[in-house]
């Protein structure tokens, strides 16, 4: 493939050898977003990714950790000016995390507001069993002119997908989605010009091991089959979508930013 591959959601710092995982993505030439789960992980991720051409770090506060880590929101806010990419953030209304949902909403609302004030941020957003609540908060607190949301491993309904598109959201799709009936059903509702790829490694598998950024090539091949296209055309389209996302979140030099 001539196009560069894209992994817009990967937990590189959760692999056994973090620096080796980063180097592997960079050597492979895969545009990779190394998301973090707590702001404490940001400095190291930012430092290591900053030495590379293809890897960038995301500043996160994972919704599944909000109950125990919400006190780190102040730390998250401190690092925010350094970060163009925010993730992993969002909401999780699954049974194990439902009790903290109200607190998750407070934290996510704060994150969206702060991102909107500064502008130009790209957010990788978790929305398990909470797509409508996520979209409600995005609509209320992050205008499309102030930032963009990429819905990671989206499992919402067709109506929620349409609403997300209307709000300017993109979607990052992984291999697990392309090989399940439900996942393929979700993908079928997504416009190709909002489509990006991800691994969510090391939480997904490829050939019996944790998926690595370069493994998005298999996802590209599966997407090409779903869209009756070729892997080359599909990879080029995803790379172009990433370029569009980046251009849409550039802050013009004369933009007056709201004080933090």
Helix/strand/pairing class, anyone?
A: alpha/beta
Rg over CA atoms? 17 Å
Order of helices and strands: EHEHEHHEHEHEHEHHEEEHH
Average pLDDT rating: 95
- The CATH class label is Alpha Beta
Name the CATH architecture.
Alpha-Beta Barrel
Largest sheet: 8 strands, parallel
> How many domains make up the coordinates?
1
**Distance between the ends:** 43 Å
- The side-by-side strand order for the widest beta sheet comes to 1-2-3-4-5-6-7-8
Question: Helix fraction?
Answer: 40-55%
Global morphology: globular
Looking at CATH, which topology would you report?
TIM Barrel
Number of helices: 11
Percent of residues in beta strands: 15-25%
Structural features, described:
With 260 residues, this protein is of the alpha/beta class. It has a single domain (6-248), classed as Metal-dependent hydrolases (TIM Barrel). The protein contains 11 helices and 10 strands. The chain has an 8-stranded parallel beta sheet with strand order 1-2-3-4-5-6-7-8, sandwiched between helices. It is globular, with a radius of gyration of 17 Å. Residues 254-260 have low confidence and may be disordered.
Please name the defining characteristics of this protein.
8-stranded parallel β-sheet, 260 residues, TIM Barrel, globular
